[in-house]
Amino acid sequence: MLRILSRTSPEVKVFLKFIREDLMNHRIHLKFSKNRNVRFNKTVTAAAFFQEPASNRWGSIRIGTGNRKPITILTNLVHEYCHFIQWKNGDRDWTHGNGDHFEGSRYVLLEERTEKEMISLMRSWNLPLNFSGIRKRSRSYIAWLRSNEIDI
Fold first, then answer.
1. How many CB atoms lie under 10 A from the CB of residue 109?
2. Burial, 97: exposed, middle or buried (Cβ in 10 Å; 0-12, 13-18, 19+)?
3. What is d(CA 13, CA 11) in angstroms, rounded to the nearest whole number?
């Protein structure tokens, strides 16, 4: 899948190589599934997720690719990579909430910040992307989260 994504531009190819190396250096596997969603646990599936490593196992970023456009796969990967960066930097929101293991308004705020970080990261690498379309998709995702918010 990385080969397909890296064919979009030389900038994307260099960016993806950087991500893969950074993840490997921190014991994180990058896995792509041919299915549209990936299984986080027995009951939860998602388009993608980041799971931090434990002392006895590597972590992972898993991305569902089935019937998704390359730009969607790329943005899902960068979003999860931003969660990895939050974990790596000891971000209070990530470590306090244990990542995707909490719901409600705190989760929505974390996801909203992560979407902004994703766009900022892609811009900082000068990736030749349609940022207007990416921002629109991002706003739709956050609106969907807010409409499905469950406070616990």
1. 14
2. middle
3. 5
Split into its structural domains, the chain has a count of 1
Query: Could you read off the pLDDT of 48-79 as tens digits, one per residue?
Result: 999 999 999 999 999 999 999 999 999 999 99
More reliable by pLDDT, 2 or 79: 79
Token readout for 95 is: 């470590």
Domain that holds residue 111: 2-147
Asked whether residue 152 is domain-assigned, the answer is no
115 — pLDDT class (breaks 50, 70, 90) = very high
Helix (H) or strand (E) holding 33: strand 28-33
What are the start-end ranges of the H helices in 1-152? Answer: 2-6, 10-25, 70-88, 92-97, 105-124, 131-147
Reported as a pLDDT band with limits 50, 70 and 90, residue 8 is: confident
Neighbours of 121 (CB within 10 A): 17
